Amino acid sequence: MGPAVDGQWRSSHPGVFAVGNLVHPGQTADTAALHRQAAAQHVVDYLGSGGHFILRVVWPLEKPELLLRQGERLVLRRRFCRMLANLPYALLGRDLEQLDPLGGPLQLTLAAN
Asked: Domain residue spans in the chain?
């Protein structure tokens, strides 16, 4: 059994959403995809209200570049001086304003120079 969520796919932890097979492991892929679409607007609303997305790295990175794409579209490019292992790095709602809830999956790439 997965985590408990409310009607907006929110867990009991602020900013943590769960959908699809995580909530109901026996779901088919098409049902899980529909839940993802249903939850997307709630995630965008959360981010737009000052919410944030937390990223952590496992090992230190020097001069990494973060790229966030939705389909072929570059949504966010951010360069860091360095990222240290296990420290939180936040992407704020304003960083993610260009996301389209129905625009398809996101691809996050993090590469060190």
From this structure: 1-49, 53-112
